[in-house]
Amino acid sequence: MLDSGRIVAVTADGRNGFEPDAPYDAIHVGAAADSWRVVDRLVAQLKNGGRLFVPVHDTDADADADADAAQWVWVVDKDDNGRVSRRKSHGVMYVPLTDRKEFV
């Protein structure tokens, strides 16, 4: 798929998504976003009818029934009319979504 160009690997700040090729049918984020501001940037890059799978750091974890989960996977759908809904799926533990310079 890489050879055919169907999948493209990009090294960049994942918190911004990759707007040049948007909109996307689906976006999977493999690191935890620290805020909904980051998630909103990614949702804006979804096609109508698209889905985003993203772990998000929960600043209200203590108020949750599962206080051990400081991060939750959220499934965010954009319907055919562009309306966005989100569903909290399950607690997880991912590395933070950050830019490269923070790890070098």
Commentary on this structure:
This protein has one domain (14-98): Vaccinia Virus protein VP39 (Rossmann fold). It is built from 1 helix and 4 strands; from the N terminus they run E-H-E-E-E. The chain has one helix at 36-43; strands spanning 24-28, 46-57, 71-78, 84-92. The protein has a 4-stranded mixed sheet with strand order 1-2-3-4, with helices on one face. The chain is globular. 18% of the residues are buried.
Describe the structure in brief.
With 104 residues, the chain is mainly beta. Helix content is 8%, strand content 33%.
Strand order of the largest sheet: 1-2-3-4
The separation of the N and C termini measures 29 Å
Q: What is the typical, i.e. mean, pLDDT?
A: 86
Count of helical stretches: 1
Reading off the top of the CATH hierarchy, the class is best stated as Alpha Beta
How big is the Rg? 15 Å
